[in-house]
Design goal:
11 strands, mainly beta, 209 residues, outer membrane lipoprotein receptor (LolB), chain A
Length: 209
């Protein structure tokens, strides 16, 4: 898979380190981030997206650019160093997660957590497109997923653990949606389980064969 866009290792490391430290009193809580990584093939069409991500947590904020690409049953997140050298690759092939790290330093985050946020925000959770307006629910991977639609577009998604552990919800807000787009121009994920938020702007997007 050829990916022409990239982001710095420093930026994403700062974001993901923040996510791990975001939920007092236990900074390691996101290491137990519940959820089931789904196969990338369930997303549908192949794509490449260039995105700007702004992370907010109790003590700070960081912004950086990122790229996400899907090819068949593989999802890939690639990082390059500020000098343009290969940094690291997160590759989900089916349900097999592989991490390549060429930075000569330990990666300061759990790659699985990153991909869980990706799929919660962008992957479809229902077999069919939503209604013109209204709310629908489904249970998957020990969670209840609720979607709200308006004017034929997805405007909100909520995730709640059926056992209440952790308590509360993850809430994703969407919009606006460009015509015939696979991703909204903007999505905001509020993780009330671990106390951080991600605002994701999709700057460029294209479908791949």
């Amino acid at each position: 898979m050829k990916i022409p866009w990239y982001f710095t290792c420093l930026g994403i490391a700062l974001w993901l380190s923040a996510c791990q430290a975001a939920a007092p009193p236990a900074a390691s809580a996101p290491l137990n981030y519940p959820g089931d990584l789904r196969e990338p093939g369930s997303f549908g069409p192949n794509f490449q997206w260039r995105q700007r991500i702004t992370a907010n947590w109790a003590t700070g904020t960081r912004s950086f650019e990122a790229v996400l690409a899907k090819d068949g049953n593989e999802l890939q997140l690639v990082g390059l160093s500020p000098m343009g050298m290969p940094g690291f690759v997160l590759r989900l092939s089916g349900r097999n997660l592989q991490v390549e790290n060429n930075t000569q330093q330990a990666i300061p985050f759990d790659p699985r957590n990153v991909l869980l946020d990706v799929q919660r925000t962008f992957f479809p959770w229902f077999k069919a497109r939503g209604p013109q307006a209204g709310t629908r629910r489904v249970q998957a991977a020990e969670e209840e997923v609720q979607e709200t639609w308006a004017h034929g577009q997805l405007v909100e998604r909520r995730f709640r653990r059926l056992d209440g552990k952790p308590a509360g919800e993850i809430v994703v807000e969407y919009g606006p949606w460009p015509a015939n787009a696979d991703a909204p121009s903007r999505a905001k994920l509020q993780n009330n389980w671990f106390g951080y938020s991600l605002t994701i702007e999709t700057l460029e997007q294209q479908r791949l064969p």
